[in-house]
Amino acid sequence: MHAVPPLLEETFRFRAACSELRDRSLLRQRLAIGSPQGASVRIGGDPVLNFCSNDYLGLANDPRLVSALKAGADRYGVGAGASSLVCGRSRAHEELESRVAAFTCRDRALLFCSGYMANLALGLSGLVGAGDHIIEDRLNHASLIDAARVSGARLVRYRHRDVDAATALIGSEKGKQLVLTDGVFSMDGDVAPIESLAQACRAAGTLLAVDDAHGIGVLGGRGGGTLELAGIGQDAVPILVGTFGKSFGTAGAFIAGPGDIIEYLCQRARTYIYTTASSPALTYATSCALEVAAAEPERRQRLFERIDYFRAGATAARLPLLDSMTPIQPLMLGSARRAAAVSDALRSAGILVTPVRPPTVAQGKSRLRITITAAHSFGQIDALLEHLVRLLGPGATP
Ligand SMILES: Cc1ncc(COP(=O)(O)O)c(C=O)c1O
Description:
Elements: H1 6-23, E1 40-43, E2 46-50, H2 63-76, H3 84-88, H4 91-104, E3 108-112, H5 115-123, E4 133-137, H6 142-151, E5 154-158, H7 163-169, E6 177-182, H8 194-204, E7 207-211, H9 226-230, E8 239-243, E9 253-257, H10 259-268, H11 270-273, H12 280-295, H13 297-316, E10 328-334, H14 336-348, E11 351-352, E12 355-356, E13 366-371, H15 378-392
Parallel strand pairs: 2-11, 4-5, 4-6, 6-7, 7-8
Antiparallel strand pairs: 1-2, 3-9, 8-9, 10-13, 12-13
Helix pairs in contact: 2-12, 4-12, 5-6, 13-15
Bound molecules: pyridoxal-5'-phosphate (PLP).
């Protein structure tokens, strides 16, 4: 008998791990969408109603953004060619930074290739380090948790949206503190108690950063996000993170805030410094997206009419929705197996809502994370509701 080579043995271990995930209904299946994003997409040639994208304003395939991407490529080319501090920062990047600063009513903005990298920058720039504390909501996005993990600071988490628990922590520890919270929570769709957090941070002289990936472009009359909705400026929340891959329909992200903080991040944030700058063509298209999002408040109006319509129908049918006023409408199903089964049944009916399961959410909290966009028609929402009632309504056995 030959001994199994060590590397092969490792390979068996990985295969067994994936097989276990499959047995527990936790194996993730990837799609290959054959069309632009939209309320309806094509998968393997078939049209499917899409209720799980973050393209909240319906901009991902807007003809003006497509033209801007082409014009940006004509003017600046496709690739940035280098990192931002070498020679990868183009006029397109400079212009987008100014636009983001104006859009968010902040002094300055710095661009990142993704929201994940922007959030990691908060832990990888020396804002806090060993001996310090990062205080976070328990349901913060994984990228904010990872920012704490890589920072060297100690991570302390408080119960979801629990202002008293957060306030008790803020100012209570030795060393520097940094408080991090989602603006709109990515899996529950509810909004952070920003005013109270800001007040507690101000009283304690603690830095507060808000990741408004799902609020920016959507909430507030101008689309300024959770902070506009709460009427809060950069004095109260000095660090604002936003992404372009959701309501703005492109990709990339920013951190906006007071000039001194942004200049510091520009000099020290490792996920800004040690990576190729984002595509200048895409950056140019994102400037167009910001312009459209600001100039067309009717998109937000359409979006909220559709959210209300969906919620009214789901509430009348007593579907187990969480209490969310944002485009993220979680339908709680409990076990991963049940969430996967309902998702599969919807898919057979031509409706796409991928199940969200552990470790993205806690055990027993698997769900369909339904997202409503400005591009959905009321008829499409009716179709979703009809199938949900068939599968989950009174008398159904999903
Ligand atoms: C709250 C939150 N922050 C950050 C991110 C990461 O953003 P990006 O997709 O641009 O990396 C996401 C999701 O992707 C998110 O939901």
